[in-house]
Amino acid sequence: MRIHIVLTGRADPGGDQFPGQLELPEDSHVSDAVAAIKDSLPEGESLPKSCLLAVAGRHLGTLDQHENRLLADGQELLLIAPMAGG
Amino acid sequence: MLVTRVGGMGGPAALMMAMAGVGHIIIAHGKTMISADLNRQLLGNEALLGKPRAEHFAEYLRSMNRFVEIEAIDHEPDDREALELARRCDLVVSCPPNFEERLRLNAASVAAGIPFIDAAQWGISGTLMVLQSPRTACLECIYPTPPPFEKLFPVVGAISSAIGSLAALEAIKVLSGTGDPLWGKMLSYDGYRGIPTVVSLTRNPDCRCCQGAAETAG
Q: Nearest by CB to A86, which of B96, B188, B195?
C-alpha cells in the first residue's frame, strides 16, 4: 500500500530528502512507516523525538510515544516538528 | 485576558485584541528591546532599543484604543504568578520562545479552568492550538516531555504577525461566543509550501498536568 508522508513545522536536517510517499506491505502500522522514514534519512540525522504524528488528521502522539494504528492505503502520515518561536 | 510574551506573535495578538475592544489585557514581557527583534515586534521600534519593553508596549496599545485597560508586567511570570494571573483572566494567549514557559502557562490555565491559546512559529511556518482541558487535550498531553530549548531560531515577521493575528481571532471567538473556535485542534501553516493543515488533538488520560482537572470536572 501507498502512504503519503508530509513533514511540516520546524525544518529539520534531512527534510529535503524526506520521502513524499512510502510503499509498505499490507497491514503495516504507524511504527512501520516511522521505521521506513528513519531509514530514509541521511546517516547521522534524525527527527526530534517530540515530533508530533498524525494520520488522516488525527493526532497519535509523538515520534517517541504514539498510538500504533493500522494504516490504510492512501492515508496521509503527517509529522509536525515542534516549534516554540515567539 | 493574559498575553505572554508580546513580541513577534503576542504583540500583534495583543494589538488586534485591543483594537477589537477586549476590555482588559494583561501583557507580560521582560528585558529590554534589542535590535535583532525589530524584524517582528510590531509594538516596538528603533526608539525603544535598550529600553524595557512591557510598559512601552502597553502605552502603544493604550494609544490604539482609549477604552481598553492595559496592565503591563515587566517580567515572565513564575509558576505562582502565572496561576495568580490566570485566575484573574478569562483566557491565556501563550507566545513565549520556549516550551518551559508554554507548559507553565498551560498548567496555570488548566488549574484556573480557562481556555489556553498557544501560538508558535519557526522560520516561515507556524502553529496555533485552542485548548481547554478537560474538554480538549492540554499542551502537556501533546508534549509530555518539553522539546529542547532553541536559543536562536529563524523568524520572518510576516509569519509571526499572521499566527499572532489568528491567535487573536480565536481569542475573540472564544470570548464572544462567535463562530466555531479551533477547540482541541492544531492549525499548522507550512509557509515553505503554503499549505495549512488542521489536526485533531488527543487527550492523554494519564497526563500529569490535566488528569486532576478531568477528574474534578467528571
A: B96
